[in-house]
Amino acid sequence: MDYEEMKRELSHRLKKSRYEHSLGVADTAAFLARRFGEDETLARLAGLLHDCARAFPNESLRAEADARGIAYGEVERTMPLLLHAPLGACVARELYGVEDETVLRAIARHTVGGTAMTVLDKIIYFADMMEPTRDYPGVEELRDLARNASLDEMTLAGLTRSIAFVLEKGHLIHPDTVIARNELLLARGGFGMGA
């Protein structure tokens, strides 16, 4: 399946707003790939398909993950929507024929991050947060970072914002998000400096 065929298939499976979001993430990921020297084609592909598992109803995500042998913990058990990311990697392979492991990994990590995030992982994570259809307080600050900050500074700001949002809502924080943020702080040789 080529990229245009994937777009057509995705447009039939996702609701219109989710499909438009996916196109926005694809374009934003391509922009960030150019900026940070990543493969633009792979970034666009991962961005397009990052939410492909959102075609499943939320109440069926655990069953779909179980059917594919996706391991998950108590956080996902409590908030099954988080499973759409690793499930999306499986669907990208099964339905769309994606074999590139870097693309599949970026799809799987786009919601909560993880340890040793690659350039593509960071691009898809951040593009998902600030693509053009996103509209929430502070999104313009993230867009400014996309134009001016380093990839690690952007990702750190995104992870920090995500944790603050989850705390504000009173939800569980996924340990992979904490790990990803801590790794970035340790790599830059400082912490507690506000990100």
What does this structure look like?
By secondary structure, this protein is an all-alpha fold. It has one domain: Hypothetical protein af1432 (Orthogonal Bundle), CATH 1.10.3210. The protein has 11 helices and no strands. Helix 2 (16-36) runs antiparallel to helix 3 (40-49) and helix 7 crosses helix 8 (119-130). It is globular and about 45 Å long.
Report the portion of residues in β strands: under 5%
The CATH superfamily appears as Hypothetical protein af1432
The secondary-structure element order is HHHHHHHHHHH
CATH class type: Mainly Alpha
Number of domains: 1
Task: Please give the CATH architecture.
Answer: Orthogonal Bundle
Contiguous low-pLDDT stretches (5 residues minimum) are: none
- Which fold name fills CATH's third level, the topology? Hypothetical protein af1432
Radius of gyration: 16 Å
Distance between the termini: 41 Å
Helix content estimate:
55-70%
Would you report the number of β strands? 0
* Average of per-residue pLDDT values: 95
Largest sheet: none
Structural class: mainly alpha
Shape descriptor? globular
Count of individual helical segments: 11
Which features characterize this protein?
single chain, mainly alpha, 195 residues, Hypothetical protein af1432, globular, 11 helices
Quick overview:
The chain has helices at 3-13, 16-36, 40-49, 61-67, 74-78, 84-94, 101-109, 119-130, 139-148, 151-169, 175-187.
Please specify the SSE layout and strand pairing.
Elements (H helix, E strand, L loop, with lengths): L2 H11 L2 H21 L3 H10 L11 H7 L6 H5 L5 H11 L6 H9 L9 H12 L8 H10 L2 H19 L5 H13 L8
